[in-house]
Target: DRMBL-domain-containing protein
Amino acid sequence: MTSYKENEAWKEADLAEDRSFRSSRAQGSRRKAPFYKVLQGMPIAVDAFRYGTIPGVAAYFLTHAHSDHYTNLASNWKSGPIYCSGDTANLIIYMLSVDPKWVHPLPMDVPTIVPNSGGVTVTLIEANHCPGSCLFLFEGPQTVHAGDSAFKSPFVGSGKTFRYLHCGDFRASPQHVMHPAVRGKQIDHVYLDTTYLDSKYTFPPQPLVISACAELAKRIVSGEWIGAPDTNGKRNSTMDAWVIPSDRADDTIMKTLKDRMLVVVGTYSIGKERIVKAIAQALKTKIYCDARKAAILRCQNDPELHALLTEDPNEAGVHVVPLGMIVSDKLEAYVQRFKGTYSRVVGFRPTGWTYTPPSGSDLSPPISSIISRGQSRPFTHADLKPMQKSTFAVQMYGVPYSEHSSFFELTCFAMSCDWLKIIATVNVGNERSRAKMAKWVQRWEVDKKQSKEAMVKPRAADYW
Model:
């Protein structure tokens, strides 16, 4: 698709979304699927359940079990077979009561023929997002004009092999570009998770943030933590007032503090499990959550996590609650439910929206500067700061933890794999947002052509 045709396709998608949304609300008719929901020349739709039975589509793929990706998927689904990972299959059958006859879990990391696709294979790759999430690498010929778009591919019937990498939602890492299914191959279209395709969202690598949270929780519960230095290098006086340093407290006081501190982590219905596990393992304690959340966790193939779960809230030093619970008044009421076992609480609120760039940051730097600056930033427990309204009894920490790629990681990913076109899939609802993202894609393309490096050298196997 040429740049002109792509622009026209976006305009068509905008118009179709607006008209079909109003029409579907008024008449109950089917919404038309925008072009980026159906693979060009293939009878395959990805995360497109809100559009019902799409013309020419023989296979419906689901990247993961988050509601914005499975909208309208329910027990009455009958539009066609659903392909996904094993964990995602378990989750949608349990949570949405989808009839299992429609759900086809696929193996990870090996090519699988997609039935009735004209010879297309798909390889599932761990997305590093939430449990069950995956990228789909599709390889095969264009055989059909499927979907609602008026723009048709000239390659249908040509026999040429096309490769499409659909990222769904993902946290980009070196492991994605080094995967045998991707490495050394040219990708025709990358359908990219552009949630944070904005230079102000360069938050720290996920492994460093997880480690920092586990270490901070351990220090707070043991009574060792006396607060992080402020910008002038001085200790945070508020934190000093909260915690008694170990060299000024006898063992009895420290034991009392340790025994009575509850750690609470806010999560989505699916996601953030890694940070919960890391904290529980650091504290050598169990994890408690309500029955519905526990059932969702048990849909996941994670024996290590399952072994940490308990139905007794007083046995667990780590509790899992909805993200919205990590505010002072709700946490104060929550810990009161366990009076006699816990008298204080520390809450962690992990979300990428917590991150704010340093004041004076250049938001349009050269690609080389984006990479060098991103790789030079460390992150430890000392970088986690207490939120407003934190007190001795109720401490709260905003954690710059996301399961979407940061801008820095998107840049590293784009500079480390061979692609011909990137199609944004998030924040595409208006022309201004798309144009802003397109400028970065153009800069990646130019810099990649000029670069002598095949990929950005990672700091570790799992992050750049």
About this structure: The two ends are 32 Å apart (CA to CA).
